[in-house]
Design goal:
Chains: A alpha/beta, B alpha/beta, C alpha/beta
Strand order of the largest sheet of chain C: 3-4-5-2-6-1-7-8-9
Number of helices of chain C: 11
Order of helices and strands of chain C: EHEHEHHEEHEHEHEHEHHH
Largest interface: A-C, 63 and 65 residues
Oligomer: heterotrimer
Strand content of chain A: 25-35%
CATH topology of the largest domain in chain C: Rossmann fold
CATH class of the largest domain in chain C: Alpha Beta
Largest sheet of chain C: 9 strands, mixed
CATH class of the largest domain in chain A: Alpha Beta
Helix content of chain C: 25-40%
Number of domains of chain C: 2
Order of helices and strands of chain A: EHEEHEEHEEHEHEHEHEHH
Distance between the termini of chain A: 7 Å
Largest sheet of chain A: 9 strands, mixed
Shape of chain A: elongated
CATH architecture of the largest domain in chain C: 3-Layer(aba) Sandwich
Strand content of chain C: 15-25%
């Protein structure tokens, strides 16, 4: 089963939930950190035997000798990443998202597939035998999605393995790409107007992907009750509430998953998983 | 020779538009006859790659010289590859700018004058797999 | 004109509550919310929308089933897994690049414009505000950020404002890059937690990559005094100014529920006093950056 953990708002506790859940469940667990801008899962765990693999994106490789100045590539390119001039051809890699249309549109076969590195993926084994895969986007690189895909491609093909995906915040392409293909999506929120607003955006997005949704309310007790009434009116189950606690916040500050110091939480995470599995497991 | 001036309006009296890639109008002028053609910039609202698009547009229309306010690094490189001489920091009207050019009182630039601005599309990037094959 | 962009790398460190406080403290600012994925600043500043513009930037492929011969050329050409084996376009995955359109031998594909969001010009009690909303499942947040910044810059000229305060998105990829490039300086809001420090280092590298001046503010500093100290030392070593520390106080959440900037909700609270001092330092730092 693949469970993705997402939220519209950042800092609601996605990574904390993903890591604590992974450390609490029985059986083989794989934890994928798809927040490749700012991967944090590995900062809460100790990783061993890390393997690093580069991630590339498609870019055009232009043979200027073969170019007949048709400018078909210039006219096709949706991002204006190619310039053809008298003194040469310029390609602007940071604007290219690798659709390959320039290659198809060239009448002279002057363009072929090249590649450009965007970042890396790390794979290793962490505490409790949890396998962790995370991506690291190069600094200054706008294109996160290919790195997310490269992390997801390393998901275990074995159905016995429970795959937990920690997603990036927001509701646009990186989050959609991370959640896509999951069996279930847990949205983590906090009971404040910010949390509610971004939860609504996230629900609207995940519903388009036709993936069942449950909510975890983190820092319960702060704020107001509007998240609860929203979930009730939308018939979204609240799977778990994690109360606002200075102790949990301080453990997070130290980089310690709180379930390791507060073992009474283990059964709560197991129950959370059972609720999801009973309804949506395969 | 054909000069291209970035302008806020479609006339010789219009003030210079200091933006290159997102200027309102390009005015193409023959400095000998002062005959001109004003064309609205098709990429004025472009969010990404505006400087490159604008460079291609004016190079394809045969401009050898650009008079504008600022050019960013992408546009600068493209104009260079297009064999266009770039003059920046120009203000006043289009005709003032052309007269200054003719009088030889403008200095061409050899590096970009505006910071890089990346109006990047949230491209998904290249998809490699076709979903996940999981046995059941 | 100065543009200060407030970012954090990691989400939830307090960017938006701090931006709202600075908007209330700064004299005559122009405010921009560039977290277009999950905008929250409007919940604290209560903008009244003056005008709305549609954000139509991307395209989406539409296959006409009457003309489609089922040859599969589009599915092979598409790099974004947006075309199903039964030749349906998944609009969420479609980038609108048009590769399928040029690959189709039967001219069965049309590229349609898609409405991806809205851009708003508003008035608040603190100054004019530019903000936006990305519709569910739409991409192109980087381009929308660029449009919000353009609107902000135009509004600033129109209203004679000399300072633009930008609430930025989390992360370091396209939306964050679009929010910071070309701004005068950055203010990174961090917190003394292991994950946030990791993210702080990456976001500071991003500013270095674009050769931009940046300053740091440590929020929730008393959660871990030792780590707050580490942040200060790290910044000191890198020559990055730290404009202040704020302590962890759940009153922040109360101000959010009340929908008001903390400096107005609880003006005599220590946080509000701290923010006033921080704003003075930010102003001085902006001037210092400009001189350098």
């Amino acid at each position: 089963m693949i469970i993705s953990i997402a939220s519209g708002k950042g800092g609601t506790g996605k990574t904390s939930l993903a890591v604590n859940l992974a450390l609490s469940l029985p059986g083989q667990i794989q934890l994928l950190d798809c927040d490749v801008d700012e991967p944090n899962v590995h900062t809460l765990l100790s990783m061993k035997n890390e393997q690093v693999k580069p991630v590339y994106t498609l870019v055009p490789e232009i043979d200027e000798q073969k170019c007949n100045q048709s400018k078909n590539c210039v006219n096709f390119c949706p991002n204006h990443a190619i310039f053809v001039g008298k003194k040469g051809i310029n390609f602007f890699p940071e604007l290219c998202y690798g659709c390959g249309g320039c290659i198809l549109s060239c009448p002279n076969q002057a363009i072929k597939e090249g590649k450009r590195q965007l970042g890396v993926t790390h794979r290793g084994v962490a505490n409790h035998g949890v396998e962790v895969v995370y991506g690291n986007l190069n600094i200054g690189e706008p294109l996160a999605v290919p790195v997310i895909k490269a992390v997801k491609e390393q998901a275990s093909p074995n159905n016995e393995v429970t795959v937990i995906i920690d997603c990036p915040p927001g509701v646009s392409c990186p989050m959609v790409e991370s959640v896509h293909g999951s069996d279930y999506c847990v949205l983590v929120t906090e009971p404040t107007p910010f949390g509610l607003h971004d939860l609504q955006l996230a629900v609207d997005t995940i519903r388009q992907l036709k993936i069942p949704i449950g909510v975890v309310v983190n820092r319960s007790g702060i704020g107001d009750r509007q998240v609860y009434s929203y979930c009730k009116s939308e018939q979204i189950p609240i799977l778990l509430e994690i109360p606002h606690s200075r102790k949990i916040a301080e453990l997070f500050a130290e980089g310690i998953p709180f379930v390791t110091k507060m073992p009474e939480w283990k059964s709560q995470f197991e129950t959370l998983f059972q609720m999801i599995q009973e309804r949506y497991g395969r | 020779m054909k000069i291209c001036v970035t302008a806020q309006g479609p006339t010789l009296e219009a003030p210079i538009d200091p933006r290159f890639g997102r200027c309102a109008n390009f005015i193409f002028i023959d400095p000998d006859t002062m005959k001109f053609e004003a064309i609205p910039n098709p990429g004025s609202m472009a969010s990404g790659g505006a400087g490159i698009q604008a460079s291609q547009f004016i190079v394809d229309r045969g401009a050898n010289v650009v008079l504008t306010g600022h050019v960013g690094p992408n546009a600068y490189n493209a104009l260079n590859a297009g064999g266009v001489t770039v003059y920046v920091g120009i203000s006043g009207s289009v005709s003032d700018a052309v007269n200054q050019f003719k009088a030889g009182s403008l200095q061409s630039v050899s590096s970009p004058t505006a910071p890089a601005h990346m109006g990047m599309g949230g491209g998904r990037g290249r998809g490699r797999g076709q979903g996940r094959g999981r046995g059941s | 004109m100065k543009e200060l962009v407030i970012v954090s790398g990691k989400g939830g460190t307090g960017k938006t509550t701090i931006t709202a406080a600075l908007a209330a403290l700064a004299p005559n600012p122009l405010i921009a919310d560039c977290d277009v994925d999950a905008p929250n600043l409007h919940l604290l500043l209560g903008p009244e929308i003056q005008s709305t513009e549609e954000f139509i930037e991307a395209k989406v492929a539409v296959i006409n089933p009457e003309l489609c011969t089922g040859c599969g050329a589009c599915e092979v050409a598409c790099k974004f897994d947006a075309i199903s084996p039964s030749f349906q376009v998944d609009p969420i995955m479609c980038e609108g690049c048009g590769v399928c359109f040029i690959s189709c031998p039967a001219d069965a594909i049309e590229m349609h414009e898609r409405l991806s969001g809205y851009i708003y010009a508003s008035e608040t009690n603190y100054g004019p505000m530019a903000h936006a909303l990305l519709l569910a499942g739409e991409s192109n947040s980087g381009k929308l950020v660029t449009r919000v910044r353009e609107l902000a810059s135009n509004l600033a000229k129109k209203h004679g404002r000399k300072l633009i305060l930008i609430d930025g998105p989390p992360g370091i990829a396209c939306a964050a890059i679009s929010a910071i490039t070309g701004a005068s300086a950055g203010l990174v809001v961090t917190e003394p937690t292991v994950p946030a420090i990791h993210d702080l280092q990456r976001v500071l590298e991003l500013f270095q990559h674009f050769n931009m001046p940046v300053m740091v503010l440590t929020n929730k500093a008393d959660l871990n005094i030792q780590k707050a100290q580490e942040i200060e030392e790290y910044c000191h070593q890198k020559g990055i100014p730290v404009v202040g520390e704020l302590n962890y106080d759940p009153i922040m959440y109360k101000a959010v529920v009340a929908g008001r900037p903390i400096v107005e909700y609880a003006p005599s609270n220590m946080l509000s006093k701290g923010l006033k001092a921080i704003w003075k330092k930010v102003e001085q730092q902006l001037d210092a950056f400009q001189e350098a």
